[in-house]
Design goal:
The protein has about 240 residues and is α+β, with helices and mostly antiparallel strands. It has one domain: Jelly Rolls. Helices cover about 25% and strands about 20% of the residues. The chain contains eight helices and ten strands. It has helices spanning about 5-10, 15-25, 35-50, 80, 85-95, 220-225, 225-230, 235-240, and strands at about 25-30, 60, 65, 100-110, 130-135, 145-150, 175, 185, 190-195, 205-210. Strands 1-8-5-10-4-3-2 form a seven-stranded antiparallel sheet, covered by helices on one side. Strand 2 and strand 3 form a beta hairpin. The chain is globular and about 50 Å long. The two termini are about 15 Å apart.
Length: about 240
């Protein structure tokens, strides 16, 4: 059997600068990983997929709308979860064979309050360590709900539950801003949440997470896999999806 983890680890696709930022801050922004024309194509596919989503695949929360499973919603999305620096970051943070756990759309609605700070996984979970990513379909700005992080919190021994105001900004948080087509890569143990969207427009993103191969994925991609999707997937994609 091909040892994809060793192969990916040896490629060092994530720059040392970005790897250091990920280690130190718990997150890093990779600017403009996709050219504007491809971002436009992806944004159109995003809107079409969200419009067609039904049933349990769509979830309307207090500040945002989420649509599940962008593995099965078209080939245009495949390059995101197979982006070489992202897979290298998985090797770096997870440190052992991994798989994609979730891949979804998230639209933060206009005039929405900030999200409370949180971590994506507990350190005593089989799904830890977790490596998350957020692709900016729209520009992330300080006024439209950019993701905020408490830098270094992935190494903190403090209890997040002891924080008195999870929606507030204590002045030590950093906004992960960037242009359309940029990518946030983050350690799932870092405290984070989107800032308030005080603008009059929505803020769209595609986000997902990777977990150790023995963990329980948030989406059962094997059970959901359409024949069309299965036919287009190459060996690396099949491994990443745990097929």
């Amino acid at each position: 059997m091909r040892d994809w983890f060793s192969e990916l680890s040896a490629r060092h696709a994530l720059s040392q600068e970005h790897a250091t930022a990920l280690d130190d801050q718990g997150f890093v922004v990779l600017p403009s990983i996709m050219d504007p024309e491809r971002v436009d194509q992806l944004a159109q596919a995003y809107d079409a997929s969200v419009a067609m989503a039904t049933g349990h695949d769509i979830r309307i929360g207090s500040t945002s709308i989420r649509v599940n499973d962008f593995v099965n919603r078209g080939f245009v999305f495949d390059t995101l979860y197979l982006f070489p620096p992202l897979l290298d970051a998985c090797c770096h943070v997870i440190g052992r064979p991994f798989k994609l756990s979730s891949f979804q759309a998230r639209t933060v609605r206009p005039r929405s309050p900030s999200q409370g700070l949180h971590v994506d996984v507990r350190s005593d979970s089989a799904d830890w360590p977790l490596l998350g990513f957020i692709f900016m379909v729209d520009e992330f700005r300080s006024d439209n709900g950019a993701t905020r992080f408490a830098p270094g919190s992935h190494r903190s021994t403090a209890s997040l539950q002891a924080t008195s105001d999870l929606r507030g900004d204590d002045g030590g948080q950093l906004l992960a801003c960037g242009g359309r087509g940029s990518l946030i890569i983050f350690n799932g143990s870092a405290w984070h949440g989107h800032a308030a969207n005080t603008s009059d427009g929505p803020r769209r993103s595609l986000q997902g997470a990777f977990i150790p191969r023995g963990g329980r994925a948030g989406t059962d991609f094997t059970a959901r896999m359409s024949p069309e999707t299965r036919a287009r997937l190459g060996p690396l994609a099949r491994w990443v999806l745990g097929l």
